Structures
1.
Amino acid sequence: MKETPKDKGRYAYEGLERIFHERSRLGILSGLAAHAEGLLFNDLKQLVALTDGNLSRQIQILQEEGLIEVEKKFVNNRPQTRCLMTDAGKKRFWEYINELERVVHDAAKSEKHAGKARPATA
Amino acid sequence: MKETPKDKGRYAYEGLERIFHERSRLGILSGLAAHAEGLLFNDLKQLVALTDGNLSRQIQILQEEGLIEVEKKFVNNRPQTRCLMTDAGKKRFWEYINELERVVHDAAKSEKHAGKARPATA
């Protein structure tokens, strides 16, 4: 193989922290990253297509990790929940995304390299 | 928010199939994608930094899903195990990588959008 022993862990991708990598949490954080003003619970629920229960549970996990904050207030006597990313959350999310970019970049290199050998139907 | 109800599931990322998304399997497949000729068990183990037991278990899962194939033979009276991606495995892996690229692209858009509002220390 091309890699040498110093390439130990070359494909370990240790930066893919579980807290971000889990698909539903990745969706929640991607949605919040796109909305600096935060998102109401029901809008976020639509965007990530999760059930109330699952979204609540993931929000709690992200909040306990300090990645998002949750504002609760009453609007027209109805409770309203808004979620926002914290500054620490944004910083760690970009770090995770950088590692994800490395995975995509590695794959793109492999595809280019394998290009000629791949059958047209693959 | 900018999205409308038709954006239901905009951040659900349903293409992030668990079989590929799990970090250790993602590493194994990324390593194999970069080596069209396949990789010997011990070389693969180095590259993904997994234990023998964990790597064996993940290889079995990937093999049962038809994503990789495993060749066993004897070289100088010693057993040798080589893993290779199948054509179906390559095809599905590129589909997964395309979805991953969408996550990175979404985040890049968010970062650009938020650029001016972010403090220099963030």
2.
Amino acid sequence: MRRVAIIGVGMTKFGEHWERGYRDLVVEAGVKAIEDAGISGEKIDAGFVGTMASGRLIGQEHVGALIADYMGLNPIPVTRVEGACASGGIALRQAYTAVASGVADIVVAGGVEKMTDLDTSGVSDALGGAGDQEWELFMGATFPGLYALMARRHMLEYGTTEEMLAAVAVKNHKHGAKNPYAQYQNEITIETVLKSKVVADPLKVFDCSPITDGAAGVILAPLDIAYSYTKKPIEIVASAQASDTISLSARKSLTEIAATRIAAQKAYKDAKVTPKDIDVVEVHDCFTIAEIMAIEDLGFFKKGEGGKASLEGRTTFGGDVVVNTSGGLKAAGHPVGATGIKQAVEITWQLRGQAEGRQVKDAEYGLSHNVGGSGATAVVHIYKKAY
Amino acid sequence: MRRVAIIGVGMTKFGEHWERGYRDLVVEAGVKAIEDAGISGEKIDAGFVGTMASGRLIGQEHVGALIADYMGLNPIPVTRVEGACASGGIALRQAYTAVASGVADIVVAGGVEKMTDLDTSGVSDALGGAGDQEWELFMGATFPGLYALMARRHMLEYGTTEEMLAAVAVKNHKHGAKNPYAQYQNEITIETVLKSKVVADPLKVFDCSPITDGAAGVILAPLDIAYSYTKKPIEIVASAQASDTISLSARKSLTEIAATRIAAQKAYKDAKVTPKDIDVVEVHDCFTIAEIMAIEDLGFFKKGEGGKASLEGRTTFGGDVVVNTSGGLKAAGHPVGATGIKQAVEITWQLRGQAEGRQVKDAEYGLSHNVGGSGATAVVHIYKKAY
């Protein structure tokens, strides 16, 4: 197994791109990543792209071939992977594996979703396919509903409050306000969140990530040749993925995402680090409760203490660990297939010292955490400054 | 890179499984493959599954996690890959890569599609997502229409006739009649085909593969440990994938699938064999013209001579090479995501000498060929008897 590094990154602004299509978004992100790596397209040996629901959202499957075509990469293989909202993280993991194994040298990993071509009820229905269609979606359970169950249980067991949930959204908007790629670049207050419309009690509109269009890409290479392309390679020191039951009702616990815990344990072991070593983290905050569970399951805080830690400012600049400098899914937006790759882009910028107004000082280790559905898939990557 | 072998295979009967769901099909095929390999589920390190359009066909995405759950494989990663009708071949290729690289030892590759839960117009629309949604499907071009264009051009350039197309269907039904897993196990005549209803001139109903439910699975292991599980390991000696334009209109030629040619050239080179060495072949005959182009592009016959060769019986028992002993997509059926894996199952049975009434005598090398869309993706695998 070879060591693997990120040599180029790029992304579109996340937001409602009414005037643009799936293909435009992919090409913009891909070209930016290729330019950032300073390579020509012919150098690329293979590609992987994460897209969750293009069949439902834009009537297009076979997006690997579509992207190979529109990026001018033919005839190299470009493969679509899908694991609901973890599709981007899975694409990164497949690309990492291809380079690590020696199957390919230069590999592009992309993520993209075009969500605003359908009305919101169509989008909700498509997203429902991330859960158990027969036992959840068909019965009327939407994703806000599923995460609301987890939030209620977390509140009951650990005393987590609606203010603590709101604090996650407030912090992520504060970070997103410094990210020119974020869908929402405005700050909000706890009061804004608490007074916003209830979606699935206790979750309100401002506890939920939005519907977003966007694409992101990263270029990977073996570490030993990465230095010939960039002065600032970022090594991927661990890539782990785990599965859990598709249906929430079959889980042993509603207050943890076991797949996150299992993937994180493997990633820390492979990278030979502990949570204390991590300086900057992108977690999967599809809902505010998801960030609270994530920072617990990833080992940054004890189970049950994530809410309190968020309210006390321990997850932002000056705290124990800086979480979601990009603004997270909440403020940066959540084009589902693109999110896992966007996380890698943000961590790369942080470890290169290019995150401008939201830079974590002297960041050496980063971690990204991407979840599919209500936790049936979790993907964790750990990154290290390799210069 | 380690050498990789198939140690177990299994599949459902292909057909219209009105009374069964996606999950039932997956579990049947998976359990059969695991039993055939003589392993326990805990031995499995990872899984890849090819499914094209579960979001459209059954409202379910995130099928990697679903399958991990229903197969009792949690918490190992199971990853869905999608490349239209080549999804199964891509799943096999990813599983092959995982084992070859040393990322995993025992890996399951599956393919599944449940197509009969929608009406045929819904299925046609979902399948249209394999082509170019903006430039083909939206304009009304269906897949029979796209392949009809190729057929017309092949007839014009090479004198291919409707009888030659029909001969492919007749031969595949003859083979399928000997395959207990085939959707159609009845023989037909040239006249049946020529008199059947026109779908997209010159293609008639009997020139087209059907709508099918089904699943198939194979278990892979490093060759050196394969012998501890089976006396008859089948080595995968090459795995290649190539891309072409998503839209037919952008191709240089309408009478070849360039992605097939490119993938095949790489596969022959990696396997150090020529078409002459191959004894048994499963090709992607989604339409009869597709088989004619495939046997040319794979190098078994010169460009333009595939139709004549088919009519002359050179692609069946006693001919130059035996093509589609399973009955192909035409007679065995075409549950899109499952087809690429079914091909591997059939080749394994052939190389083990377990194909009963359709056995190719002393088969030593096999090849499978899986196409996505109108040829934007092609995947070629070459297999060798390793005992």
3.
Amino acid sequence: MKLCLLRKFKYLTVIFTIFASQIVNAETLKFDMTIEEMVKEVTPGFTNKVWAFNGQVPGPLIRAKEGDRLIITVQNNSTLAHTVHWHGTFQTNSWKMDGVPGVTQKAIQPGDSFVYDFIVDKPGSLWYHCHVNVPEHVGLRGMWGPMIIDPKEPTDIEKEVTKEAIMMFSGWNSEVAMEYGKGGHPQELNDYFSINGKSFPSTQPLRVKEGDVLRIRLFAATVEAAYHLHGHDVLVTHKDGLPLDSPYWADVVHVPSGGRVDVIVRMNNPGIWINHDHIEAHTSNAGKMPGGAVTIIEYEGVETEEWYKWKGKEYQPDFYMSETMKKGSGIHNVDVYKAKAPESDRRKRKKKRKSKKSKAE
Amino acid sequence: MKLCLLRKFKYLTVIFTIFASQIVNAETLKFDMTIEEMVKEVTPGFTNKVWAFNGQVPGPLIRAKEGDRLIITVQNNSTLAHTVHWHGTFQTNSWKMDGVPGVTQKAIQPGDSFVYDFIVDKPGSLWYHCHVNVPEHVGLRGMWGPMIIDPKEPTDIEKEVTKEAIMMFSGWNSEVAMEYGKGGHPQELNDYFSINGKSFPSTQPLRVKEGDVLRIRLFAATVEAAYHLHGHDVLVTHKDGLPLDSPYWADVVHVPSGGRVDVIVRMNNPGIWINHDHIEAHTSNAGKMPGGAVTIIEYEGVETEEWYKWKGKEYQPDFYMSETMKKGSGIHNVDVYKAKAPESDRRKRKKKRKSKKSKAE
Amino acid sequence: MKLCLLRKFKYLTVIFTIFASQIVNAETLKFDMTIEEMVKEVTPGFTNKVWAFNGQVPGPLIRAKEGDRLIITVQNNSTLAHTVHWHGTFQTNSWKMDGVPGVTQKAIQPGDSFVYDFIVDKPGSLWYHCHVNVPEHVGLRGMWGPMIIDPKEPTDIEKEVTKEAIMMFSGWNSEVAMEYGKGGHPQELNDYFSINGKSFPSTQPLRVKEGDVLRIRLFAATVEAAYHLHGHDVLVTHKDGLPLDSPYWADVVHVPSGGRVDVIVRMNNPGIWINHDHIEAHTSNAGKMPGGAVTIIEYEGVETEEWYKWKGKEYQPDFYMSETMKKGSGIHNVDVYKAKAPESDRRKRKKKRKSKKSKAE
């Protein structure tokens, strides 16, 4: 134990040494990312104005290897100021890239851009989010996305994983949903809850096959969660990106606000298994049940009945980024997360098209 | 550690092997359970309409040994549809017994019954609850009860336990308490909080004697809890039924919604010790203090003063199921949890009795 | 592991043995502490009536060595009844010193005092708080303070600590802030959140230098917290005062209501680093952002820009008790926590002064 602790405490020193010796392998990755005013349909009947990274909620997947240098130009195409905080990165020698307005930088004004330039010196399940007026921008406007940094030395159990899934939990408040600059008062309460920006039944199945070793990366993006998977215990392996010395089994996993917990599950129990936030208030859509932060794991080859809630549902295989997680380093948009352009824009464009058309005539 | 992890990951495989070799010892247990419309008195002055398993809140204790087969017929005598989810069971090869409406079965309609048939292939502190309209049925209507599965291989520390106690934490909302079909909107807040269905001072003392090794199984049935015992640290030994590799000491134990945490305490400090949920909002009865999810551990032989809050209190020794936990496998009603028949029923029965009487006359 | 567990379970027995052999070194410390009606300015524009231990919020630091005897006379100078519970102490053979009204003592009436006399038989990050009408007295009126008991056998990593910081998290409700006897209903929600009684930007920087080994003792005094430090992972070393067998790294640390978590951080990453409760609702002042339970770690020698939020801020080096923690055993008032006498008192005193003056004339 003492050894173990010492090893841990040398962590940062060690990674620098490794870093020096491995720097030949480190890559420099250049990305562009925009912030757009969009409308997210959380579930039919409930839409929410968002400031969407690359026009989507959650934002695009940023993927890199431990030790890589990222140069990310963030262009603010919205009408209010923002920043981006890269939650979990150490920002060693680059504290001015930490993305906190009035502390590490001035906020990025509408129309402006900012270049974030830093080395991803911590591996694991990280994320990024705005750090301006957090209760509204992060809490209610979808300004969050995943950043997965592949470790130089994965643990044995990580190496066994055959399927990746990312679940980001968030809340929404329909009372202020359609008005920018409103919401986030501590006495207001959310009425919608979602995984990856969608509330049940608008979430998607997570399809697996027997024998899969599934890693689910749980992100409490805007609200805490108590994740419960039916039919399986999960092994809790990572906290905030780093492996636990003493993993433990659970059927309800608490993820505190802003935290991440990775769990690994052997898919050895074919069936149709609901999995969801077990906080009661998070399992309805403004009181309409079922709803909320709920989804279903479907094993390949299992027959479902006619009355199955999701019978014949149109399937989007990338809803948990399982497809996108197969790609290598880069910034990856995820089509199913795309929000819509606001009505006014659509009308303007329609008008333009019409006027072009009439001019053409 | 690696060994340990491997051991863990082989868990399911292993239990099947054990299972095969020990199947001769496995029992088949057949139970009946009903769902009744009842009225629960949480504390004098506050009653709540419930759908009570076997007419009680919490529901009856289900007790079995790891590997047993349970066949439970659930009869719905209420006016709305329900199911029963057996939280924590793996339901290996029996996913259709998982109790999720629209996913694993059609909800049990009023007057109908459903036979759940499954093997309890995971040991420890499990529970069961309805899975229809969870924010109301579970969150506000008392549809939850304990299921304790004795492990084939208890840990050393478990073997030392001399006294068992079960504490199930829940919240209530007096504004919707007496109207079925109402309540559960995420913006509503509870105003009563309880242990095993009662709010202080209507809870009961937990009486121990010096030398007892007390195991308290904490269940966050409908609300999270931060359990604090005065005068002792507790050793946190189990999470969601399974033993931790690395138990730890605590004086405040967080139990996330739906989770269970087992703690073991050596009763070596004679006195009168309050113990309670440390979440401030959970320690009053609609603002009246003291109240809420609070109780007191009383050591045998300790003298109390005249002004002691519970001086001369009528004692119900089974309020934490310490008596019922001495019984073997089976479904065990717990008298102190009995709810009352609703007023209308009582009137009807009275009428019937009267009419019978008048006919007889 | 088994050994380890045994060792743990012998804990209490062992400390008594040690205690007997070391009793020669144990000290008896006598303190006086008062409860005063004061007004706390949480941030300009928001003040709250409090019952302040020694006139300050948080209360004074109580510091002793494991095994010491404390004799604390608490004088109630307020208009309502109170007690003091010494949260985390075992109170072995002294359960009547546990501070629970109606259970271990009668509440201390206005004008009265009570002598608490007990041995601090558990080391670590403890605290004290009132146990009368907790949702108001503790939850909203500042009746809480730190008690740090130095262990006889500190862990290796504890011995490396070069700088101590204490952070106590609390909430406030401006709607009932200025009226004693109001507030604490479970359906009321807080609108201000603070560290050591102040909301950002009225909190203070925590100044460190490269090479410091910083121990932060996190206390969820009245609300849970999800503590996030930018630019560093923290090693979670202690839970509720006692060392973990298996410390773990985190960038978001959940502290349940009433719980304490100690974290140790090597200050090896010079910069200006915000750190805060990551629960969104806790990061504004009644909706005004930025605000809430937020502060900033400033490394010595790091240049900040003109637009830095805290540029030229008047610095109070003891805001996290880093100075006071250098003192030995005793009860230590902390000047920066002083609340103000209420308006009426000030008026009375002014009047008195005036009348004295006029008499003198």
4.
Amino acid sequence: MIKAGIIGATGYTGEELLRILAGHPSVEVTAATSRAAAGKKVSSVHENLKGFYDLTLENLNPDDMKKICDVIFLAVPHGAAMEVVPELLKDGTCKIIDLSADYRLPVSVFEKVYGSKHKAPADAAYVIPEVHPEITKDFKGRLIANPGCFPTGATLAAAPLAAAGLLKSVIFDSKTGITGAGNTPTETTHYPNLTENIIPYKLTAHRHLAEMVQEISRLQPGFENISFTPHVIPASRGIMTTAHIETKEKLTTADVKKIYEEYYAGKPFIQFAETVPSLANVRGSNYCHIGMEADARNNRVVVLSAIDNLVKGAAGQAIQNMNIICGLKETEGLRFPGLI
Amino acid sequence: MIKAGIIGATGYTGEELLRILAGHPSVEVTAATSRAAAGKKVSSVHENLKGFYDLTLENLNPDDMKKICDVIFLAVPHGAAMEVVPELLKDGTCKIIDLSADYRLPVSVFEKVYGSKHKAPADAAYVIPEVHPEITKDFKGRLIANPGCFPTGATLAAAPLAAAGLLKSVIFDSKTGITGAGNTPTETTHYPNLTENIIPYKLTAHRHLAEMVQEISRLQPGFENISFTPHVIPASRGIMTTAHIETKEKLTTADVKKIYEEYYAGKPFIQFAETVPSLANVRGSNYCHIGMEADARNNRVVVLSAIDNLVKGAAGQAIQNMNIICGLKETEGLRFPGLI
Amino acid sequence: MIKAGIIGATGYTGEELLRILAGHPSVEVTAATSRAAAGKKVSSVHENLKGFYDLTLENLNPDDMKKICDVIFLAVPHGAAMEVVPELLKDGTCKIIDLSADYRLPVSVFEKVYGSKHKAPADAAYVIPEVHPEITKDFKGRLIANPGCFPTGATLAAAPLAAAGLLKSVIFDSKTGITGAGNTPTETTHYPNLTENIIPYKLTAHRHLAEMVQEISRLQPGFENISFTPHVIPASRGIMTTAHIETKEKLTTADVKKIYEEYYAGKPFIQFAETVPSLANVRGSNYCHIGMEADARNNRVVVLSAIDNLVKGAAGQAIQNMNIICGLKETEGLRFPGLI
Amino acid sequence: MIKAGIIGATGYTGEELLRILAGHPSVEVTAATSRAAAGKKVSSVHENLKGFYDLTLENLNPDDMKKICDVIFLAVPHGAAMEVVPELLKDGTCKIIDLSADYRLPVSVFEKVYGSKHKAPADAAYVIPEVHPEITKDFKGRLIANPGCFPTGATLAAAPLAAAGLLKSVIFDSKTGITGAGNTPTETTHYPNLTENIIPYKLTAHRHLAEMVQEISRLQPGFENISFTPHVIPASRGIMTTAHIETKEKLTTADVKKIYEEYYAGKPFIQFAETVPSLANVRGSNYCHIGMEADARNNRVVVLSAIDNLVKGAAGQAIQNMNIICGLKETEGLRFPGLI
């Protein structure tokens, strides 16, 4: 059994890690930390876990964690991961999977995008498994930078065309559930402000754009003509990414479908929708559903990807990454369907 | 033109007063106060009012208000009304319509229910116009205690049977939209906690119960066998009250309908549903829709009332009360249908 | 491996059986039937199951089913189960778990409540496992009548007090998600009619009342003073039952809690809420969460139960019943937390 | 008083015409037609109108209508308007405002886009008042083609830049409430399919695209580089249009704002959001709220427009058009704020 610890276990991604790991046959959660809720039972804070954990939240320091964990998930806000990563990396062999943004970008890009100095740079591998097949059980590093939710949906929507070198311009118009904003009540999460509404924000300069550019330009070197506009929809979970893609050549829908099917062949978490994907079909699951249509009039293609922001966009992908680098089956503990 | 002022204009009931008064032909809003938002335009804070008001929010004291207003609406939290009512009543002739709970109950009851001393008792008339026909343009007082949202829905659901002396026991199982909780984000108003859910609270001892007992026992002297359990539903607006009523005699649905139709004859804001009432049909309006069914097996009747908690349950009823005591037509400025 | 078949696999309960059985370690789904969708892949009709089933829907008759299934789930509308049960029972040994209403009531009661003649009476066991401990792996029958969704929530909310003989009157005010109405679009399921609304229906005479009376009067012989009013809330899944209970004796909240904890001791799917239960905490799961409060003023108690109508209220309980009568662990394949 | 008739009064746009006209001081509704519901009271079919109309739905023919109406609104499906327009135009002087698509496009374009022969071509004026100032009370025609909901939102989002000749490419990514799909229950309108979801459809070839091209290329001759992808969001009302615009020149946000403010100066129903527009602020109203941001990195601008699809996108704009061609004040009967 792999002993797993979660630093920051009271937020949504912490809860999702606990929810999924409750059913993972090769993992036992040995530690879950919280400052504010230390001393409370995990299942008192996350009542959906009643009957699953007898664990108590503790305010553990990194040294304590290292002693009792083989893998440590960092489910903390941006800026907080870099506070503990150096100590976690010092001696020991525990693997670290950081769900924050702290290690996703090169330091210079990070500092520009996040507007503050990086306190503890370290080598990390940014891994969306479907587009980073180079990361395997032979991975020698100890730190995984788990991708952002929007970049996961966007990259999965554009990667096959990027890998084929066919992109000319891409606009990601993304629609996310509100859990992406965390579980602290704010004006945006206030029910009357969101229900029966849609809230566009950061229209041209969301911080996740840098990750999208990084990943897509890696697949199609030199390509950076990417725009990104996020919206919050009245939903708790899910990201629907509408990728408006201009291609270098005219493609039919069948051409595009073939490119995607070949690129994602053998990837267990990628499925193709009968027509368009639906957030309901991936709700609570680690799957990404994809659909597409080429515009008959021009060189444009619309590609859609649907993921659960908390699972494939966060906790599920983190566990998928753990499975891979720990030599488990990629799908272990993650084979459950979406909840319609 | 009646000059109206609103103390506490940034909350939901303040906004609704402004929204409705924007279309009231005999009223001009001359003052709207806020501490936190003083200096901002009303229409910057409530963007739905863009194009309707050029008014700026000010941090006015009661004395200032009295000079420029004929009617003053108090759209403040409980406990705050009693801080300003004495000064508003001192000299002058302005009418005061208090939407808080401060003047709805006798002092002794208030202090028991709200758990704190009443700082400034004063004579006030508690008025749901449909059950208080004694309040007319000849009203000599200056202070109206505008009823609570739940008590409005509950009293309208039970009043005809109470007036007929037929009640044996009543359980109000009420379902409210979340705007009743105000516009400050909290755990309950956090979108993921409410969507696709229903939140029961204060299962046996909500403070509004005292108002229900007061009004229903006034109509059927001595009757106090009333229970009340509120729930929040995933809706911004509306209260559906399901009144589970045990009657002294066996009644058919037709019997009950006749009692209600006679009791509410000539009341412009009461309408009877074809089958069951719907929150959609009263959304944004001052109407109360009512439906009912007698249980063929016993002496029980289920009566349903649907209102908009912010309109008939707050701002609309306040304006209806203003119309009545100011000698305007009861429906003036309030004749607009629900928004389906 | 138990070979399971599903008759009626395109509806919501059929889908839920497939979803849950996809993760059941001791069950293989060998047949799924549909008339309208015969020839289509299960995963084309239920796209959340892409990656889980290669099975094709077929229009199989009962004889075919018997040959390839050890257990057959009937996920068909009321009236359709009795069309196939006789043939399924004739020879063979397959177990039948009927999710329809056809075998839940004695024939005479069924015919009165459902208003039509029963075509094929048969012995069946009505089983909510938590209140029917007499059904074990030694069950000799072949037909289980799986309980209705509302009766499951209601019975679990009142059973401990009934078993203690303490009930004087009970009103179940239930709030259900709309999937209980099936997946055929109707006026009630039309999005604009339900969102931001609540729809009461069958105010005094819903057909599920007979099941509640049957089960509760079994626990407290002679007690039939039960009323039931259902409402649809803007939610896909879940039933929150608010049980307004009048007891023979005055009880404190602590008294009531003790009665429930003792009655449900050792029942894995019953959990007690920290304060009030939440549909979110049981969403997609087989758990029932319970909360309660006694009214300090009188002999009344409010008990709340939260279940997922499609899981504990249908498919999950059916699988729980299958586990029990097949000698598997009661919780096998059902140990997954709610999806917040 | 203008006597108004509504052909097709049971749908959502029919209901909205009735709802708004109930408060229009210069209009009396003298006829409302329906085949299926003939003989029923308007207020039995639209219960939100209880207390507002005593009118009965009738199955009137065009000749009957002409005799009792000065203005006739056609709130019928596409294809049905052309069945009655010739008769309505024959003799008489009644004005016709057609809310269907039948007269919005030149015949040749119509036949290509709608895939069927036009049975009764006629001269009509396509009018979004804010971009068609040439239509005034001096309008000599009798037939107004009321614009589609998506084209209204899209055109208002792009018109100022088009009029300035600055467009290089435009992608409209639109998000609509479900009432745009009508009030007949379908799989798309089925509550569980839409709640907590977003449904993209007709990804590259929605029929409304032709109207957008027509209007925008009228303002910027020769410009046709327009794409359009609609999505349904979990909302009854509203269209949020996210216009991803590539401009010929680099513009700052201030530049863009100035262009929009100048273009829409004096237009009463256009308002600019403090930051981004919100569907809540225009819910139920005839207003269009606009916001924008230029991308600092390139020649791209994101412009957002928010309207209520049933009001500014249908019934409200129809009444606005009626006001204009009948010589009333453009805003008469339409000055009510959005319902937050």
